Amino acid sequence: LKMSWFWFYLPLHLLMATCLCHSIKAPTTSSQQSSKSNLFNFYHSLILADGKETTIHLLKDIPKRYHFVLEEGRALAPFSVTVTPCDVPIEWSIFVYKSPPGKATPGDHDTQEVSKSHRTSSMVTTIFNYKGNSVETYMGMSSHSALYLLEFLSTERDTHITVYLTTDTTSGYLYPELPVDPRIDVIGIGHTTVTLAWKHSPSVLQHRESIQYCLLVNEKHNYKSLCAAETAIRSSGMKLPPTLALSLSPYLLEPQQVMILSNSELSIINKVSSGEVRQVCMGTKNTYTVANLSPSTQYYFDVFIVNLLTNASAAYTGTFARTLEEPEPKVTELKDGKVIHVVLDGKKQKFYSLQYQAKHKKIHFTFQLCRGQIRVHITRNGKTVASENLSGLRYFSLKGKLLDTYLVQLRSTEESNSSVKVQASPHFHKPLFPLLPESLKIKSFSKLRTCRSVTIAWLGTQEESKYCVYRKRIEEDQIWRELQSADRCSGPESRHKSEKVLCKYFYDLNLQRAVTTETIKGLEAGTLYLFDVYLFGPSGIPVRYHSKVVKTRKKC
């Protein structure tokens, strides 16, 4: 750009004095006042760089102005200005100062040419005005030298925008080119998947190595630019690298982000308050299936074509789709007093449903967690009456009406398989499981350990019950596996006969004294043993205490 600095260093008092004299000589019209204001703004504006994307920060209700001068000596001077709002809608305008025939532009050295005729309404004109948050491009051409002013204003809040000016339309464009039809087509919808397709960008055909498509998925709304999408994610409380295409690096991820690399596609999932925001870059493929979505949920999809060399991007017209409702899960009927053993697949994370129709007003549900971690959700006639994570043995006593319908839904909360035993019964005085102590932990006494014996203790109840003790020799590297894989619902029938130590009965009406100890002898020195205690109730179904690992002394 060819600029004349004399114009911009013209003393401010000279302009003010000239304007004051003019106002004394004759009354001014509103258009003349507007023209003078716009001309005055040229003195208080920054130079807009040519061929470079400029980031501009706007304060609320405070306009910001930039200017540029078209090159002199060219018969036709083409130019274009592209403005990308990165958040809220903004207002922006382009004003042009054109010299009357035979007069100099404000950039010329002959300051005497700044005459009265320059301050008429024909001196400064508005050639473009826009208000909104879409990416807009103005393309113009001038037959002689002219000075242009761009004015930007945000009336909602502080924000930032990017502006790209170019006067060289022959050397290629900064932004990737969109196809004639920039819409995204939804070509398939499932319960947890949506398949998308879009027309190829002409830029992909010309510059395949430096161009790629990136997809943004969220549950809130579509975004009109990549800049706007990044700003929205940041405002949700998350730090995001400057651009989507160039920021997919593991070391830049935040704690709320998950990176997935699969089949040369890089995905980042951001956990935000308004739901997941997924970012996927898939190279130059123009079809993509978004998987692992939630059923019956509306998602918004935006595709951006990104120039990896310049960081610039262009947005396709966003679309949205609602995933299909999940089919009703198979429901198993619960019968009075019957125990059902349910095994849940942790990888699928699906609910297992049990239904029970009440034949009494009071209903008792019993859950014995066998393995893993499980979430239980109970509804009565469609209304939630209980919901929690299971731990050990759990009873729910519920009161309703005759013929009430209860739905019990179970789901594993970890990736490994989980299992649980479930019973529904109106007869609480005939419980399936025995009366339990306050704790199912087994305690060992370090001071009572010898090379050949170990002393353990456990709590009992006020009800006379049978307790059986089992032991198993294990190695150091087996401890974690034995403790984690233990089936807490399995009884002594799964144990080898040689592992049985003893069985005994005891109780105490005073719970403070309901504790028993047992010294297990005949052990080997310096050896690890796994001890289990089984409690049997009236029904004969056992409850397993938490396993205890104890090592005998090596030397005595």
Give your account of this protein's structure:
The protein is mainly β and 556 residues long. It has four domains: 45-99 and 123-166, Jelly Rolls (Sandwich); 175-238 and 275-327, Sandwich (Immunoglobulin-like), CATH 2.60.40; 331-425, Jelly Rolls (Sandwich); 442-551, Immunoglobulin-like, CATH 2.60.40. The chain contains six helices and 36 strands. β34 (528-536) and β35 form a beta hairpin. The longest helix has 14 residues, at 12-25. The radius of gyration is 38 Å and the shape is elongated. The N and C termini lie far apart (94 Å).
Give unreliable regions as ranges: 1-36, 107-122, 239-264
The helix-and-strand class reads mainly beta
- What count of domains describes the coordinates? 4
Tell me the major beta sheet.
7 strands, antiparallel
What's the CATH H-level homologous superfamily of the largest domain?
Immunoglobulins
Question: Which of globular, elongated, flat, extended, rod-shaped describes the shape?
Answer: elongated
CATH structural architecture of the largest domain: Sandwich
Instruction: Report the portion of residues in β strands.
Output: 35-45%
CATH names the topology of the largest domain as Immunoglobulin-like
Radius of gyration: 38 Å
Query: What is the chains' assembly state?
Result: single chain
Helix proportion range: under 10%
Beta strands, count:
36
How far apart the termini lie comes to: 94 Å
Mean pLDDT: 79
CATH class of the largest domain: Mainly Beta
